[in-house]
């Protein structure tokens, strides 16, 4: 009995020690043989394949590979950045921090991602360092031209760049508001640079989709000065100027400085505290109950016209305005746009000529429950721009591609004619060879002239001698 | 966009800036059901909206047994009373493309005229097209060129019937981000020009349509993830206003057109 028990204990012990050996985990793969075999046998029990003995090696290998793959897939499925979480974080901040008054939101669709644009009123005393950088750029170009004097004189280009129309200061005109963009709610907001008149005039001539990346260069003809951020800002300025409307009477003209300069259009307005609100049906039926509350952008690309001819040190006949049709040599006619708070019924006339399209479509949101309806205004020139009004409330909204309705097909402007290679004059143009008679006639006349001259000289000399 | 799923699927495409208000949604839910019964459709899709200057057209599409061939389009102004659009013929398409210009008016009896009598040696002197046939042609063209389904959502049976694939479980997240996994839901045009090598990879039951990635010009589709990257949204740049959505890992997909009904011919300049 005793030796038997001893033997069985010994056997158990050796089995236990062997199990412990099998349970030793591999240093590389972190798997032990015991688990592997038990899993393998379990699989065999579950599946009961034919000819197990032949496929056992394959099954074993598959099992090992499966473990490895599992691990890889857990690596791949690392938690992605959940935008909803970020959004929640962002929104919590919104409730705690006082913000600038956001007026209007726009959504501009891009080919790769879209922009959400918020408009904010400019506060006094924010940064104004942008002008400094521009001056520096101009200096650099001048320095480059100075070095070339020693070489052979190359034919000089007679092209003189038109003087740049100065930017409007922050807080006025097209730069009245500052705009912030973000790609997705929750991501940080990026401030857009202020817009220059050159960018607005270039943006008027091109049609490009937004890509969704602010750094993308705008490849177009005519060339656009700046990257997509500038293009976006220019389009926002144009959309705002064209489509931001409010019920008549909601805003009234500002009183402070309007009377002093009679030619400058009004550019300030304030909320009319006595505004009572117009009835919704009236708002939906007549366009004259709506007014623009953003200044019209002139052909020059500014809201207030600036006379470029009067710049010191420049030729007075240089035309500052590329698009203007008439040539006015001395004094360019000041451009005047419609003044602020002009009713929409007035821009109907000028625009309908363009594409046979009335610029606005108005509508009541609901026909069944008209007591709860709002008046909706849809812009036909800027597809995607909407305004609604209901009692004292109104709002403007733009969701679209950031492109103006272009009528029938866009044709890009043709490049200017190439510069002439040389000035055409009498000494360059080819003439017919003279015939023999002509030559002889010329010879005779020349001889006659010579004879006459000699006679004259002879008398002159005599006179001179007399003088001496 | 299936009419039964309209209430929640409109949310997915609202990022393009157009949606329906509560009144229209409820009216559609009622009227499309009646429409399905009266016309004996298998299912009814809310196809979209064409914005006119005065009125907007709401378009519905009824589908019969064969999802691709048995299509009927209907239009309405108030989402309640539906009128059948005439079938599109080649001569009609030609007339519309010559005469109809500019925006839709919103009046089906409006007549577009093209007077060529002033110009010499033109045979068709006066082309007249009413807006109803223009609408029919436009809807047909948009369906031809811009209707989108995710790959596998429809199967073609050996008899040639095209039907919904009931075992379609949706594309995976990574698949949904690729344009080759979306197909045009119209008669294939470029499939036959593919080489045998390329055809070898295709599954004849599923890949019987053209892929979006073969479209010319390249980049005429904008593919984005929206709604906290849960929904894959495809927008056509050729027909501005066409938005298609697919929720990855679910069979939910659909497309809707809300726009002016004008093809974006400026696309080559704009990319």
TrEMBL record, chain A:
GO BP term, pick one: cilium movement involved in cell motility
Question: Keyword Transcription on this protein?
Answer: no
Compartments in which it is found: Cytoplasm, Cytoskeleton, Cilium axoneme
- Please note every region of biased composition (Polar residues): 342-358
Give the UniProt entry's GO cellular component terms.
radial spoke
Listed Pfam families: Radial_spoke (PF04712)
Residue numbers spanned by region Disordered: 122-163, 253-273, 311-358, 407-468
Ranges of biased composition (kind: Acidic residues): 124-151, 254-264, 315-334, 454-468
CDD domains per the UniProt record, alphabetical: DD_CrRSP4-like
The record's section on InterPro entries has: Radial_spoke
Which UniProt keywords are listed?
A: Cell projection, Cilium, Cytoplasm, Cytoskeleton
User: What PANTHER family does UniProt report for this protein, alphabetically?
Assistant: RADIAL SPOKE HEAD 6 HOMOLOG A, RADIAL SPOKEHEAD-RELATED
Q: Please give the name of this protein.
A: Radial spoke head protein 4-like protein A
| Taxonomic path | Eukaryota, Metazoa, Chordata, Craniata, Vertebrata
Automatic annotation (TrEMBL), chain B:
What Pfam families has UniProt attached to this entry? Answer: Radial_spoke
Alphabetized, the UniProt keywords read:
Cell projection, Cilium, Cilium biogenesis/degradation, Cytoplasm, Cytoskeleton, Flagellum
Q: Where in the cell is it found?
A: Cell projection, Kinocilium; Cytoplasm, Cytoskeleton, Flagellum axoneme
Keyword Cytoplasm among record annotations: yes
Which InterPro entries does this UniProt record tie to the protein? Radial_spoke, RSP9
Which GO BP terms sit in this record? axoneme assembly; cilium movement involved in cell motility; motile cilium assembly
**GO terms for CC?**
kinocilium; radial spoke
Query: Which family is this sequence assigned to?
Result: Belongs to the flagellar radial spoke RSP9 family.
Q: What is this protein called?
A: Radial spoke head protein 9 homolog
